[in-house]
Amino acid sequence: MKAYVVEKYKKNGPLTLVDRPAPQVQANDVLVRIEATAVNVLDSKIRNGEFKIFLPYRPPFILGHDVAGTVIEAGSGVSRFKVGDEIYARPRDHRIGTFAEFIAIDESDVALKPRTLTIEEASCIPLVALTAWQALVDVANVKPGQKVFVQAGSGGVGTVAIQLAKYLGATVATTTSAKNAALVKSLGADIVIDYQTDDFEKVLSGYDVVLHSQDPKTLAKSLNVLKPGGHLVSISGPPDPGFADAMKLNGFLKLVIRLLSRSARKRAKRLGVHYSFLLMHADGRQLEQIAGLIDKGIVRPVVDKVFPFSQTPDALAYVETGRAKGKVVIKVG
């Protein structure tokens, strides 16, 4: 099969098109013919080596975290899927590799594709929707009547998080450029702040939840908009001790992570708020629930551009510009 691999960790390093053997199917795996995949900021961070301290891959490895396609083989232990099923998934860590023609995925990471979406639309949902779900539902436990601040509302995670927070009954504020204000309002944002002209820290206060996806300077300011007892969930770092424990890292790495997050945790404690780092995980059952919301019209994908498989490196480069609205899709089939 054809696949794009990272030959070595390097910032802005190239993706190389290679021939690889088709994946081996284990008992609980489905073999999927990939028809579409999508690009995430996480792909760039992994290629750059930013996460290799706690999420190491041995180069050369196939990049890519989102997939939509068709099951062409099912392992002997598979009970939820059959040949011919159209599925979507975010394969678990250490089994990624969707910038390719085929992938074997544990069935517990997989869900049937939402009926109302095209295969290209479905491919852009898994990672960002799982991130939003796990941040807002699992970690922050957003309740009706609360106030939620979603940073970068026109981005991949932001476009889904706004819709999910509104479904959960929250008032939603977000940041974006003026040209994308209409988009985020159409997704449900109640308060839209033009980050190019306004300072959200001077506009927002008393928030229950912040979904943080930006830089350390923005993190410090975001803690200030929370009310006492509020919760900031960061998907861009720094990792915290809870994350290190969940990953079962060794003592040295736990110490490193404790030092990396010390400033954020101290600031949060001083303000009487909570700080958590989230690295989303694969979960097919959650994708089933998300598919239900999509088919009811509660959540919809936002697709910026669709690239052919031959232009996968260009798709990654476009996402790295930070100009994409919603998600960037790669049509493989």
Report on this model:
This protein has helices spanning 41-48, 119-123, 126-139, 156-167, 181-187, 200-203, 216-224, 241-246, 251-260, 262-271, 284-295, 312-320; strands spanning 2-6, 16-19, 29-39, 61-62, 67-74, 86-89, 102-106, 110-112, 147-150, 171-176, 191-194, 207-212, 226-234, 274-277, 303-308, 327-331. It has 333 residues and is an alpha/beta fold. The chain has 2 domains: 2-125 and 301-331, Alpha-Beta Complex (Quinone Oxidoreductase, Chain A, domain 1); 128-277, 3-Layer(aba) Sandwich (Rossmann fold). Helix 3 crosses helix 4 (156-167) and helix 7 (216-224) packs parallel to helix 10. The longest helix is centred in the middle third of the chain and has 14 residues, at 126-139.
- Give the tally of structural domains: 2
Looking at the structure, the CATH topology of the largest domain is Quinone Oxidoreductase, Chain A, domain 1
Q: State Rg.
A: 19 Å
- CATH superfamily of the largest domain, please? Medium-chain alcohol dehydrogenases, catalytic domain
**What is the string of SSEs from the N terminus onward?**
EEEHEEEEEHHEHEHEHEHEHHHEHEHE
